[in-house]
Design brief:
InterPro entries: Peptidase_S55. This protein is mainly beta. The chain has 2 domains: 201 residues, Beta Barrel (Thrombin, subunit H); 70 residues, no CATH class. 13% of the residues lie in helices and 46% in strands. The strands form 3 sheets. A 6-stranded antiparallel barrel has the order 2-6-7-11-10-8. A hairpin with a 3-residue loop joins strand 14 and strand 15.
């Protein structure tokens, strides 16, 4: 009998663990589409190439510097202060760095370092896709540069969101006003704690979940659907029509049909990543990206993969 009791206890624990694997709740039944545009701040353990000051450098944007050792002086540079290296003319430095997630070792010069601007922070705006009852959220729908060396990631509230229209020679993007609290500081609303190629997971300081607005989650299919996002005119959240034209295992290809999005944004632009995609009254995914030469054609990440990047379905 004691052995049977132990077995039953283990089975109960296993069931509890399995139901918590997906988004930290007892299987994903319903989530509330959010569509909130937020400002994201990553604090990095190592500096990242934030900008190429000139093209005469072997570094690339978003390279992450892990270490820099002088080949002549046999000393390791302090990555917090590279002033002496910037001033050197022919100094050769053995650099260990990350590029597109892969570690590399290469010899650079002081000239290469003068051609870049390094930063220990990564900042951008993106969209929260959906929120659960406990305040957990998913968003962005794609990988985040610098996340592999992030020490912490804070999320801040925004107010009115301007739209910079995408054209053939301009990628466009959302430009939100940052909301401040009574102390004049940015209004902190939560943290991001997990990253994947399908987006991020985090926790809001105060849950905005409303059961009346919650939707079931399912996989996308070909046909009419909607991007739920702020209107480029009124800034009110509303549905914008799209067509899902092709289905993939982890997402889908879309075509923007909505007149407002085409006229004022040129289609899908930066900052819209994570905007909820709704089809037949159910949440199917989040906006991921668009073609650089035609922003009216884009892609979404399947909500199942956003909830569980390993690919196991989180639906009942």
């Amino acid at each position: 009998m004691k052995r049977l009791t132990n077995i039953l206890s283990l089975m109960i624990v296993a069931i509890l663990l399995s139901t918590n694997l997906c988004f930290g709740q007892n299987s994903v039944g319903k989530l509330m589409p959010s569509a909130e545009v937020v400002f994201v701040n990553l604090n990095l353990k190592y500096p990242m190439v934030d900008m190429l000051v000139n093209e005469d450098t072997d570094f690339k944007k978003n390279d992450i510097i892990l270490s820099a050792i002088s080949m002549k002086k046999k000393l390791k540079y302090d990555l917090n202060d590279l002033t002496d290296l910037y001033k050197s003319e022919d100094e050769k430095v053995l650099v260990r760095f990350l590029r597109e997630g892969k570690e590399n070792v290469q010899v650079f010069t002081g000239k290469d370092f003068r051609g870049i601007y390094l930063s220990f922070t990564q900042q951008f705006c993106g969209t929260i896709t959906a929120v659960s009852e406990d305040g957990s959220f998913i968003g962005l729908s794609h990988n985040v540069d610098g996340s592999e060396v992030a020490l912490s990631t804070q999320v801040f509230e925004t107010s009115y969101v301007h739209s910079i229209k995408a054209t053939l020679f301009n990628d466009g993007g959302l430009k939100p006003h940052l909301k401040e609290n009574k102390e004049g500081k940015l209004n902190y609303i939560g943290d991001i704690n997990k990253y994947s190629e399908y987006g991020v997971k985090g926790k809001l300081k105060e849950s905005t979940f409303n059961d009346k607005d919650a939707l079931e989650v399912t996989k996308p299919k070909k046909g009419k659907a909607y991007i739920y996002c702020k209107s480029p005119v009124t800034n009110e959240k509303k549905l914008h029509e799209i067509e899902i034209t092709k289905i993939y295992e982890d997402g889908a290809k879309i075509k923007v049909k909505d007149k407002e999005l085409k006229e004022y944004r040129g289609g899908v632009i930066g900052g819209m990543s994570g905007s909820p995609v709704i089809q037949d009254g159910k949440l199917v995914g989040g906006i991921r990206s668009s073609f650089i030469y035609n922003h009216k054609i884009g892609f979404i990440s399947n909500v199942d993969y956003m909830l569980n990047p390993e690919g196991e379905s989180c639906r009942n």
